[in-house]
Automatic annotation (TrEMBL):
Keyword set includes Transcription: yes
Residue ranges of the annotated DNA-binding region, renumbered to this chain: 40-59
Lineage: superkingdom: Bacteria
GO molecular function, one term: DNA-binding transcription factor activity
Pfam families found in the cross-reference section: TetR_C_16 (PF17920), TetR_N (PF00440)
InterPro entries: Homeodomain-like_sf, HTH-type_TetR-like_transc_reg, HTH_TetR, Tet_transcr_reg_TetR-rel_C_sf, TetR_C_16
Keywords: DNA-binding, Transcription, Transcription regulation
Keyword Acetylation: no
Name assigned to this protein: Regulatory protein TetR
Residue ranges of domain HTH tetR-type in the record: 17-77
Length: 210
């Protein structure tokens, strides 16, 4: 007996959504582990339990899949939350905790590190950073140059993560998390709260042209 159309169609949509989700989840893992160049469509398909043709069907190409994976990786809050109050301190404490020994790794930063050097992936990674975490942070900042200040704050975040979690420089690895968070907060405060316009001694740089 034929099933009513109202029953059959939702089942197919659910199967399609589940397949797409499985592919996307597998892609995030593969791109994080191996970078854009090192992650293969066949490996992603195997991890997702589908064929390579299914990836092309749902995402069009490896580049299209990577763009969706970057969106997936950077969309959820990791270090930058959604609260304006105590923003510098919140970022600093979260960063110190998430880069401590034994902490859950920050996969979006790994994806960025391993994929950004590839010319085909660099623009997608840049858009992901700017669209998600950059825009989220800039939206929490008052005053002028919010986008620039947000990117400066993210540069401090990314640099701290790189040296503490990947390179493993001794002073950062052995630092007390509370002390590290306090120092990071002090560095972030002028950027978060726009303490700009100060000249840099000996350089003539005062934030103005000429």
């Amino acid at each position: 007996m034929l099933l009513p159309m109202s029953t059959a169609h939702p089942a197919r949509r659910r199967d399609g959504a589940a397949t797409r989700e499985a592919i996307l989840a597998a892609a995030v893992v593969e791109f994080t582990e191996h970078g854009y160049a090192g992650a293969g469509v066949r490996q992603i398909a195997e991890r997702a339990g589908v064929t390579a043709m299914m990836i092309n069907r749902y995402f069009g190409s490896k580049e299209g899949l990577f763009a969706q994976a970057v969106d997936r990786a950077f969309a959820p809050p990791t270090v930058v939350g959604d609260e304006r109050t105590g923003l510098a301190g919140a970022i600093a404490h979260t960063l110190a905790e998430r880069t401590a020994s034994g902490a859950e790794r920050l996969d979006p930063f790994l994806l960025l590190l391993r994929s950004a050097p590839d010319p085909e992936a660099a623009d997608i990674v840049r858009q992901g950073v700017e669209t998600h975490v950059g825009a989220r942070l800039a939206g929490l900042l008052d005053g002028s140059d919010a986008d620039l200040r947000a990117q400066l704050a993210l540069a401090l975040v990314a640099g701290t993560w790189l040296l503490r979690s990947v390179v493993g420089t001794t002073p950062l690895v052995t630092a007390d998390d509370g002390r590290l968070a306090a120092l990071l907060a002090d560095m972030l405060e002028p950027v978060i709260h726009e303490a700009g316009g100060t000249s840099v001694p000996g350089t003539g740089l005062d934030g103005t042209d000429g």
